């Protein structure tokens, strides 16, 4: 028996909810924008890991530094705590996501690995316990606990981190007709570094505006007001400080607005940007412009996406 799990790209923060809001996305043309992990019977070897995929060269050379190995360690720790037998596993990571891209690349590997390990062991951990482990792994990589990539990647859709009453995250309704244009320029911005440049404290006016934007956005989503929700997508917490890490971002946002996009922001800690529109022609026009003007090298790409409401999914038993 073996299982392959696909975990999609995600937009941390969605501009308006630093560390507490995230969205999973998948390209409309069916491209797999996410990692896959295969877990198969390891036979007489307790654990082995091999890696493949278009971004395999960007992974740490030592497999013990790969987050998938650490996922195996924490998963088996949890099984041992519960007196559940750990099975020998042979794992393969298909690394399709660029690292340090703002697309939740590490979250893709973490979610695919832990979801696949759990399924291979007949789901001994419930959704919340698994999500808590995913957060632990993301914190190990970025230096602080935030669920805004792993939660949408695992559960799908637009997710709000409530982190109370034993609930980590809950889904918020969003607009099904929105296109999310994702543009990765091909350069690297490490999440830990993009967090380190943020202020430790904020002015009262910024706090008020942040609360107004996030509450207004969530209200717009629940009351079915797309224009209000899109107008609320403004970031006073991270974007003013991170913009300097993203060459051409201000220009790209200006173009997207003139072309008819509803809102544009930094995806996660960047350098990927996202731009929202409800008009496919606008999405294609913005995508073309970003390909020609925001992408900096051959590693960059642009995808027109929809919200991925599935989150991580089983794609079969072989890669
Ligand atoms: N499977 C993996 N996928 C992505 N990054 C990994 C993986 N294993 C280890 N890493 C390391 O974790 C760090 C991820 O960097 P980060 O900026 O947080 O990426 P992202 O924001 O794209 O998730 C890098 O130092 C990378 O070498
Ligand atoms: N809330 C985090 C999100 C980081 O997302 P990533 O895709 O860049 O890892 C932050 O903004 O630091």
Describe this structure in words.
- The chain is of the alpha+beta class and 319 residues long.
- It has two domains: 2-173, 2-Layer Sandwich (Ribosomal Protein S5, domain 2), CATH 3.30.230.10; 179-307, Alpha-Beta Plaits.
- It has helices at residues 67-81, 105-120, 127-142, 150-155, 191-196, 204-222, 226-231, 239-242, 249-259, 280-293, and strands spanning 2-12, 21-27, 34-41, 47-52, 89-94, 158-164, 167-172, 179-184, 263-266, 273-277, 301-307, 313-316.
- Strands 1, 2, 3, 4, 5, 6, 7, 8, 9, 10, 11 and 12 form a twelve-stranded mixed beta sheet that branches.
- Strand 6 (158-164) and strand 7 (167-172) form a beta hairpin.
- Helix 1 packs parallel to helix 2, helix 1 (67-81) crosses helix 3 and helix 9 (249-259) packs antiparallel against helix 10.
- It is globular.
- Bound molecules: adenosine-5'-diphosphate and ligand LJ64HWYM.
- The site of ligand LJ64HWYM has 16 residues, from helix 5.
Beta strand %: 15-25%
Measured distance between first and last alpha carbons: 13 Å
Could you say what the CATH topology of the largest domain is called? Ribosomal Protein S5, domain 2
Percent of residues in helices comes to 25-40%
Largest sheet: 12 strands, mixed
Number of strands: 12
Number of helices: 10
CATH architecture heading of the largest domain: 2-Layer Sandwich
Unreliable runs: none
- Name the structural class: alpha+beta
Shape: globular
- List the domain count as a whole number: 2
* Ligand identities: adenosine-5'-diphosphate, the ligand N[C@@H](CCOP(=O)(O)O)C(=O)O
Overall CATH class of the largest domain: Alpha Beta
């Amino acid at each position: 028996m073996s299982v392959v799990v696909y975990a999609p790209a995600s937009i941390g923060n969605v501009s308006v909810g630093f560390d507490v809001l995230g969205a999973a996305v998948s390209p409309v043309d069916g491209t797999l924008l996410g990692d896959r992990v295969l877990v198969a019977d390891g036979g007489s070897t307790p654990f082995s890991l091999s890696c493949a995929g278009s971004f395999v060269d960007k992974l740490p050379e030592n497999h013990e530094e790969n987050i998938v190995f650490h996922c195996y360690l924490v998963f088996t720790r949890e099984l041992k705590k519960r007196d559940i037998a750990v099975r020998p596993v042979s794992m393969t990571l298909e690394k399709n996501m660029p690292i340090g891209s703002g697309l939740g690349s590490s979250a893709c590997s973490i979610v695919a690995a832990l979801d696949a390990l759990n399924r291979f062991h007949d789901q001994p951990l419930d959704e919340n316990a698994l999500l808590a482990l995913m957060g632990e792994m993301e914190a190990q990589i970025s230096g602080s606990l935030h669920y805004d990539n792993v939660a949408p990647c695992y559960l799908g859709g637009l997710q709000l981190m409530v982190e109370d009453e034993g609930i980590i995250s809950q889904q918020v309704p969003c607009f099904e007709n929105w296109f999310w244009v994702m543009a990765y320029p091909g350069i690297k911005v490490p999440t830990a570094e993009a967090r380190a440049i943020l202020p430790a404290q904020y002015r009262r006016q910024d706090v008020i505006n942040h609360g107004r934007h996030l509450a207004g956005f969530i209200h717009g989503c629940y009351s079915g007001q797309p224009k209000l929700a899109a107008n609320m997508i403004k970031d006073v917490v991270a974007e003013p400080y991170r913009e300097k890490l993203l060459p051409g971002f201000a220009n790209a946002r200006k173009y997207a607005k003139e072309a008819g996009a509803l809102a544009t922001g930094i995806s996660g800690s960047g350098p990927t940007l996202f731009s929202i529109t409800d008009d496919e022609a606008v999405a294609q026009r913005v995508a073309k412009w970003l390909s020609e003007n925001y992408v900096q090298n051959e590693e960059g790409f642009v995808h027109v996406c929809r919200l991925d409401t599935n989150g991580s999914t089983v794609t079969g038993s072989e890669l």
